Amino acid sequence: MTKKPRETPEFHYEQALWAGGVVHVAGLDEAGRGALAGPVTAAAMVFPADPGLCHELEGVRDSKQMTPAQREFWAERLPALCRAYGVGFASHSEIDDLGILPATRLAAHRALTRLAVPLDHLLLDFLRLPDCTLPQTPLVKGDARVYSIAAASILAKTARDAWMRQADLEYPGYGFAAHKGYGTAAHRAAMGRLGLSPIHRRSFRLHDAG
Fold it and tell me: Would the pLDDT of 5 be above 80?
């Protein structure tokens, strides 16, 4: 059976909006929704209305399709190529208090408030922000198809990974630097051995660990 090639991002959606006079288009994505510990993180990125920028972005993909070294490379480079970007977090306790979807939307709103330009439109990876008055386009597999969303996914992932590496220093033994709070076998074994850390999400099914 022939393996289906991976989708690569493009500026199709951004270009359609730019052509209609919609200048400041932000791609938005999140990281950490399914983790058992730590925050959920969102990032937003606005590129200049320049389709030729795609040549500078070759190699940008959905963060899940990239190696850690590739993500870190682009996390360093992307801020110099964009017009504005922002990153927002919602903590493990906010996730427990609000639920994961509202907390994800909270992180997204925080990312948007950190943008240095007024927004005209949002492109999102299968998410909608009902409390946001901006026009929005939620897209299936948006992080694999749209440059703005793919770039945002890289910033969200690398920012959260850095947070979890710091957490690994504060709460040693869980392996947060390796699994970033996701429910791997090693993480569950550590939870069974050590109990829950202060940054575990109590509202998740943590009682199955161990």
Answer: no
**CA neighbor of 8 nearest in space, from 172, 167, 208, 145:** 145
For residue 115, the enclosing domain spans: 12-160
Whole-angstrom Cα distance, residue 121 to residue 118? 10
Does 207 fall in a domain?
no
Could you tell me the sign of the dihedral formed by the alpha carbons of 78, 84, 111, 133, in that order? Answer: negative
pLDDT in tens, 117-129: 999 999 999 899 9
pTM over 0.85: yes
Which CATH number covers residue 23? 3.30.420.10
- The DSSP secondary structure of 56-109, one letter per residue, reads T-TT---GGGS-HHHHHHHHHHHHHHSSEEEEEEE-HHHHHHH-HHHHHHHHHH
Pairwise CA distance, residues 89 & 158, whole Å: 12
Residue written as tokens 């943590």?
206
